[in-house]
Amino acid sequence: MTKRYDKLFSAIDIITLIYSGWITLYLALGFGRAENAGANLAAHLSIFTAVVFLAWWHKSLDESKFPRLYKVLGFVRSLYPVALFGYFFTSGYSYNRIIFRDWLDPFFMNIDQRLFGYLPSMEWGKRFAGFWTSELFHFAYFCYYPMIAGLPLYLYFKKPKAFGELIFILSFVFYMCYFIYSIVPVIGGRYIAEAMELTRQYRAGIFTHIMVFIYRTSNHLGGAFPSSHIAVTLVLTISALQNVRKMGYVFLVIAFFLTIATVYCHYHWFIDAVFGVFAGVGGYFLAKYVYRKLQGAR
After folding, report:
1. Which of 88, 94, 163, 204 is geometrically suited to a Cys-Cys bond with 208, CB 3.0 to 4.6 A?
2. Rounded CA gap, 233 and 280, in Å?
3. Pair 261, 147: CB distance under 8 Å
4. pLDDT means over runs of 10, the chain (298 residues)
5. Cβ contacts of residue 207 below 8 Å, gap of 6+?
6. Long-range contacts of range 203-206, CB-CB < 8 Å, 24 or more positions apart?
């Protein structure tokens, strides 16, 4: 998918520059309170610079002389945030305790305790620990990964306009969650040592094993409030319902079980899941509004 960019920066560029600029400034101001501050500051500054350069290069290129290169650059500009999501998430561990030096999990644990009289993120997975129950919820949680790849890929070939909008909305909601993570350090259910151990024990079947493998190989902590897993899944579900109705119904069922799974699998506090729903639904429509405003201003 390519298009002639009338202005230097696309809607995707604008929100990426805002987010990367924020983290660059945040790391510079909190340099002495961040881990691996130098490397991550350099990385975010490089990303900021690369986005500006890519926009300038694409804008200044003569399409009639370099049609293939122009098309490739247009494709990259429409999709590059997807390649950054993983780094933006994992790098958050470097700077998510610049303001608050300690994890804020006790505050969120107290909310769950007051709501239920116990901690769902600890108890649900232990009370209902059967093989098939574990597989169901770990399968639902795993579905996030094929969903986030599958729907954009389908829209890219079938509905290019919807593809562009979805990538913007996904980027907007991710950046919104990542911004919160940068100042609100929350581990989630794994803050409790027993829960952490449960997420690292191979048991049940293939999907439980897959998720255990992922969490055994990832050392990242933080980024639990709100649940971006839920927020992004709901973004994908709403988009699918609007563009590929049958797929949307399937996504809706998965989203229901995935929301419960974030707590059952010990990854999130219950309140993380609640606000993940708000972030997903609210973020979707806010992002859509911003996208149309930015596109209309072009």
Report:
1. 204
2. 8
3. no
4. 64 95 94 91 94 93 86 89 91 91 95 96 91 95 94 92 94 96 94 90 89 83 92 97 95 97 96 97 96 78
5. 135, 138, 139, 142
6. 203/134, 204/131, 204/134, 204/135, 204/138, 205/131, 205/134, 205/135, 206/135
